[in-house]
Backbone:
């Protein structure tokens, strides 16, 4: 193995992929590409193979890093039909990736954007995970990192937001796409237990975990729902007089289903 040092050339570069963790990913990608080109040195024209240290990154490298896209990972999408709704999509489904998701979302440039005087905002979390994973541990990861980020960037709202769970509504739904029980083929998890799915076992466990982690959260605002379409109905029922921010996380199947049902694919999947 080779441990590669951080590239100072990445400082100030606007990466196409959001999230501070993408800087280390970009650093690894640059070194991998460079090593590949070194292995084929006899086939590569010299102008395209400068030394990485200390020369500036070659223009093709910069272009690739700036234009890289990964739908559904640390992605902010303005709803084209419901202008008051903004979707924040991240298919994070491990403790490590949910930590990165929280660091991205709970930031002044993303989920902690200041409101104009008199403005109203509803924050919604839509979450799911596959059976066998520790939903309670995942939710605690989100909440713990939320607290750290809020204390870091907006300490004045810690008392009013952190202990109350930050969100106004939490929705735990299955990855079933539509209310009639049908799912688009790409979003079917063939490993899901049919009996657990019909009983919403995982979603009920997530709701119980949330109640335990945030005892003061309003019971009526914790939703256990059988499909993504049902979740969309809750989001669309919120007042349109204010903005609605929706964080979707915990499952790539879930994120894909939300893109489908919310009809935001024209933006989320655009190249």
Residues:
């Amino acid at each position: 193995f080779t441990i590669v040092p951080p590239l100072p050339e990445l400082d100030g570069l606007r990466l196409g992929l959001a999230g501070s963790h993408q800087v280390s990913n970009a650093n690894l990608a640059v070194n991998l590409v460079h090593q590949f080109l070194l292995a084929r040195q006899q086939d590569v024209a010299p102008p395209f193979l400068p030394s990485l240290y200390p020369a500036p990154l070659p223009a093709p490298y910069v272009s690739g890093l700036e234009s890289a896209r990964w739908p559904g990972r640390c992605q902010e999408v303005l709803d084209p039909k419901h202008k008051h709704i903004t979707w924040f999509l991240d298919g994070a489904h491990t403790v490590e990736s949910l930590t990165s998701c929280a660091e991205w979302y709970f930031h002044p440039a993303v989920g902690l954007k200041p409101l104009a005087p008199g403005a109203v905002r509803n924050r919604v979390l839509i979450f799911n995970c596959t059976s066998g994973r520790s939903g309670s541990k995942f939710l605690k990861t989100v909440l713990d990192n939320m607290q750290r980020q809020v204390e870091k960037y907006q300490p004045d709202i810690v008392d009013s937001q952190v202990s109350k769970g930050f969100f106004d509504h939490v929705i735990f739904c299955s990855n079933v796409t539509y209310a009639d029980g049908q799912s688009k083929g790409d979003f079917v998890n063939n490993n899901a237990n049919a009996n657990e799915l019909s009983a919403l076992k995982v979603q009920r466990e997530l709701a119980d975990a949330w109640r335990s982690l945030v005892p003061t959260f309003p019971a009526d605002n914790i939703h256990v729902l059988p499909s993504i379409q049902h979740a969309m109905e809750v989001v669309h029922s919120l007042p349109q007089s204010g903005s609605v921010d929706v964080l979707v996380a915990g499952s790539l199947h879930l994120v894909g289903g939300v893109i489908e049902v919310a009809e935001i694919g024209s933006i989320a999947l655009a190249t």
Observations:
- The chain has a mean pLDDT of 87.
- The longest strand covers residues 121-127.
